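Checklist before submission:
- one chain only
- standard amino acids only
- sequence pasted in full

Submission:
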Amino acid sequence: MKLQTLLEQPSPIDMVFVRSLESTVSTLSQVRDRVRTLVISCSLDLVRDILRKAVQLDMRDHHYIFTNLDVQRLDLEEFGNVNFTTFQLVPPNFLVKVRISIDDGL
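Returned file contents:
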């Protein structure tokens, strides 16, 4: 199921909260006592802010699932033992070489 589809449908389970965050982390305070698992689609800078806010609000026992594929670029030690999941499509040392050829004879 695509993330956009999840965002448009009400959650069938009250324990899972799916929301696309654009610029605020106030949502954490609002859902603190209602949900335990959050699927979050946001920018890398906002991931950092959310994890910091989770530490401040003592929400380390919640589970955060980030759809941003660049989360591994953050210094994760800064956030202590916050429980979160992220995804990586290629190994960190994966190198792609691209050869570009221009044919002027078209």
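Reviewer check: The mean pLDDT is 76.
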